[in-house]
Design brief:
The chain has about 425 residues and is an alpha/beta fold. It has two domains: about 130 residues, Aspartate Aminotransferase, domain 1, CATH 3.90.1150; about 230 residues, 3-Layer(aba) Sandwich (Aspartate Aminotransferase, domain 2). Helix content is about 40%, strand content about 15%. It has 15 helices and 14 strands. The chain has a seven-stranded mixed sheet, sandwiched between helices. A four-stranded mixed sheet has the order 1-2-3-12. Helix 9 links the parallel strand 8 and strand 9. It is globular and about 55 Å long.
Length: about 425
């Protein structure tokens, strides 16, 4: 098998191959990639989310210490003493699980506390919490939008949003292009029962920010609603870390605010915040909420504490932004193409899948943990090395990464 001519996209559907034959072919492909030391997925951590991760190296069988530049744990809440203590106390009080689905018998008082806290944090009337961010987006959209409606999506929205719109009509507009959005709105005006514009606040592959203020203005002009996914924005942008609406000073003007608890808040799960009526509807029609056991007590309590920490310990966000500014300035000075990155996510755009794999292999060997992002996750001409920062990274960590990137970037002719 010539791996140079094959990508993950080739295994979505293989004509004349049943599921087992398809799986066998894919395993052969993965083994081939691993043989060339290009398999930089499912690396096993021995110490959790830390700026320096102890990784069990599949290629040597030994544990190695790596500067970890692939975490969504932007504020390092996973290891904050207060989130750990709060989770431990909840585990002792409530046990290891909620015991039932939220609608029937699994709603705890701390679930209500978290819903109230996240809705206030996002400037909304009410909120519903889920056990996964993917489930919150997908389940919400599947329950709200039918064949009479239309979802108007930025072409780079998260996969959970695209999957959630499979039961409705969809139109895409060019990424962060307001002229393109307005053209779509004009074409669909008066043709659908509900028009819902859906964007990410911060885009996970590019690190840029949606122009949410202009999107809200256009929505109002054309009778549409707006939903923003705050996964990579919560805790990171806005004057006090409340996210994209705060960043643009339009809190309370976005119809549906979605997000995860798994990034800036350091836990797991997702939420939808909106008006009281819409949230009540979701309680009874959102299938991932109705048919999944409620969030564990430990996670719930840790998230409540994380929201408090964001409010009363701004030093974490401030340090994250110092790291962002330092790292970005140095990467640009070295000549790397970062696209339109504005936040803690740094894409080094290379445009060659094989070169990305080789660079990530060399960085792995140099004890720098980054992610390759290849087709079909991005177009082939935009293949990239993706990195993300934490507030816990020190200048020494960043300098080690910058030195390795400079040397390897020159070796492969990307700077």
């Amino acid at each position: 098998m010539d791996y140079k001519e094959i990508s993950f996209a080739d295994f979505y559907n293989v004509p004349d191959k049943d599921i087992m034959a398809r799986a066998k072919m894919f395993k052969e492909y993965v083994d081939d990639v691993a043989d060339k030391k290009h398999l930089q997925y499912r690396r096993v951590s021995m110490n959790g989310s830390e700026p320096v991760m102890r990784v069990l190296d599949r290629y040597t069988g030994k544990v190695k210490e790596m500067v970890y530049l692939a975490s969504n744990d932007y504020l390092h809440m996973t290891k904050h003493p207060r989130t750990i203590s709060a989770g431990r106390a909840a585990l002792e009080k409530y046990g290891s699980g909620a015991g039932s689905v939220p609608l029937l018998g699994g709603t705890l008082d701390i679930h209500i506390e978290l819903e109230n806290k996240i809705s206030k944090f996002k400037g909304c009337e009410s909120a519903i919490i889920y056990t996964s961010g993917f489930g919150s987006n997908c389940g919400t959209l599947l329950s709200l939008l039918q064949e009479e409606d239309i979802a108007i999506l930025d072409m780079l929205v998260h996969a959970s949003i695209i999957d959630g719109c499979k039961s409705t009509n969809t139109k895409f507009f060019r990424h962060n292009d307001m002229e393109s959005l307005e053209k779509v709105l004009a074409r669909v005006k008066d043709k659908h029962r509900t028009k819902l514009i859906i964007v990410d606040g911060v885009y996970s592959m590019d690190g840029d920010i949606a122009p949410l203020d202009r999107i809200v203005e256009l929505a109002k002009a054309y009778g549409a609603y707006v939903m923003v996914d705050e996964a990579h924005a919560t805790g990171v942008i806005g004057s006090t870390g409340r996210g994209t609406p705060q960043h643009f000073n339009i809190e309370g003007k976005v119809d549906i605010v979605a997000g995860t608890f798994s990034k800036g808040l350091g836990g797991v799960g997702g939420f939808i915040a909106s008006n009281n009526e819409l949230i009540e509807l979701l309680h009874f029609y959102s299938r991932p909420y109705m048919f999944s056991t409620a969030m564990t007590p430990q996670v719930t309590a840790s998230l409540i504490e994380a929201l408090d920490i964001i409010e009363d310990e701004p030093v974490h966000r401030e340090q994250l932004w110092k790291n962002i500014q330092y790292f970005k300035e140095n990467l640009l000075n070295l000549g790397f193409n970062l696209g339109d990155s504005e936040t803690a996510i740094f894409p080094i755009i290379i445009g060659d899948d094989i070169k990305v794999k080789e660079i990530c292999r060399r960085l792995h060997e140099a004890d720098i943990y980054v992610n390759p992002v290849l087709y079909p996750a991005v177009p082939k001409k935009l293949a990239r090395v993706r990195m993300s920062l934490m507030s816990a990274h020190t200048k020494e960590h960043l300098d080690k990464a910058l030195n390795a990137l400079e040397s390897i970037g020159k070796e492969y002719g990307v700077i």
